[in-house]
């Protein structure tokens, strides 16, 4: 590992200093990254090209996949490169950008999951008003608000966190520029502003969580009154994947960010960081496609020989412009 005592960057400790384990880590992360790219790219492509998947639910799913693609690309490629080069060094500029995009995309992901839960609530509990409430104009504004809120959150954290004077060795016990770990490097009593910003972000996430919980309370109370078992099964097949994604992402991220950062590297820190940075973007396409008959049918149609050739010609025509 590089000696950072005279450098302005940081040392990411990663998973191991053993060369064989570093190579294994790089290979596992590479396979996971390729799976995430493939799955999310397929979801994005099929929701753009298939005319049957143009409802608000699939519109929001498309943006969730875009967020997942960006989210996993912020941390995993850098970690793979560090392992292959046997160097955990990351420059100050890279660390600032990584922290900004990580917080921005994580915040946007929480926001889009909240919007998706509201979309399911309106579709199931107020079906007669669904087209009026979730019209294309409202959906575009909701997605714009998601991206703007995430960008603002990332900007606040990056601006405040990187204006704090740092003391001691610049060693981060993570495989990416994790803000809770970076606060340990701050000089005494210099991180009050970051705590205030984190409190605002946490409060916003809590409001999103409450909104999601309330939406699903109403959804399940409505579903349980459906007399048809087939109808209940269809609704649960639509809602349960989303509920699983929300629960997994928020619980692991909340546990990691709310508990005090450790003074040294631990397996638990790394495990929970993988749970909310790597696994959700990889599993989301699998969860939504395997439980959604419309997406599976659209994927089979798109990947069929004749249809695939037509879509390829169509995409080429688009990119020419």
UniProtKB/TrEMBL annotation:
GO molecular function annotation: G protein-coupled receptor activity; olfactory receptor activity
Spans through the membrane: 23-46, 58-76, 96-116, 137-160, 195-214, 235-258, 270-290
Annotated keywords: Cell membrane, G-protein coupled receptor, Membrane, Olfaction, Receptor, Sensory transduction, Transducer, Transmembrane, Transmembrane helix
Classification via Gene3D superfamilies: Rhodopsin 7-helix transmembrane proteins (1.20.1070.10)
Membrane topology listed for this record: Multi-pass membrane protein
InterPro entries to which the protein is assigned, alphabetical: GPCR_Rhodpsn, GPCR_Rhodpsn_7TM, Olfact_rcpt, Olfactory_GPCR
Residue span(s) of domain G-protein coupled receptors family 1 profile: 39-288
Cell location: Cell membrane
Family: Belongs to the G-protein coupled receptor 1 family.
Annotated function: Odorant receptor.
Protein name: Olfactory receptor
Phylogenetic lineage: Eukaryota, Metazoa, Chordata, Craniata, Vertebrata
